[in-house]
Amino acid sequence: MRHKIKLLSLVVSSGLLLMISCQSASSDNRDRIRVSGEGKIRIMPDQVTLTINTAFTKPRMVDAVRETQNTVDSVIAILGKYGNKKEDIKTSSVSANKDYQFIGNTNKFVGYQAQQTIDFVLHDLSKFTELTGRLLETKISGIGSISFDHSKADSILREADLIAYDDALKSAQKLASRADVKIGKLLFLSNDGSASNESTGYRTGMALETFNKAYGGEGFKIAPEVLEFKRTIYTEFEIK
Fold it and tell me: Which UniProt keywords apply (predicted)?
């Protein structure tokens, strides 16, 4: 019984020490300075993502699915010549539903629609016009979006982090100099809450509809805009 009492006393004492330690940490009243910094990197894109839509409406569901799948197969065969099938081509599963159109004052059943979407990343922008020309030869229903980006976006954002930190440090040093004080060690650092954690990828406003008709001729010519990668860093320094 005596041993049990001693053990209980030890546990209670440890709890008191923990509470005192936490209170001491939370009552840190050291003078500090809080500043934020911004890092921006502007660079031309080196890749483009196309969202290709394929959809057919037929009286019979089986015919709609077959037509959609045949068109998707022909598109993938073309895309395979411009990129890696496993890494650059992503297809959604075929979805099939009843198709209604607003005719007169009511929605009327017009058949069964099957549709599928293909996302493709083109890494050689010089092939863009040629590729879109080839796609227009198929019976796709349209190109939903064209989005330019950079293949090294993650590395560029990390560089923007460093630029943002340097900017914050310079601001802290200038403010401290004006206040006739000196900054000490770094107490807090975060890029949480950044105004832009991702690149402002350039997306065209184009949404091409081909109405499942194959068109020959030349593809699109688009001059992408410069991309801007931006990060915001928040810091807190001790004031000596």
Answer: Signal
Residues with Cβ within 8 Å of 84's Cβ and at least 6 positions away in sequence, in order, are none
CA count, 13 A, side-chain hemisphere, 148: 19
111 contact partners, CB below 8 Å, separation of at least 6: 57, 58, 59, 64, 98, 99
pLDDT for 76 beyond 60: yes
Q: Going from the N-terminus, what domains does the chain have, and what CATH number goes with each?
A: 31-45+151-208+224-239 (3.30.110.170), 47-149 (3.30.70.2970)
Report the C-alpha gap between 142 and 140 in whole angstroms: 5
pLDDT digits (tens, 9 = 90+) for 135-190: 999 999 998 888 999 999 999 999 999 999 999 999 999 999 999 999 999 999 99
Spatial separation of the C-alpha atoms in residues 99 and 64, rounded to whole Å: 11
Q: Work out the average pLDDT over 216-220.
A: 67
Query: Alpha-carbon distance 109 to 165, whole Å?
Result: 60
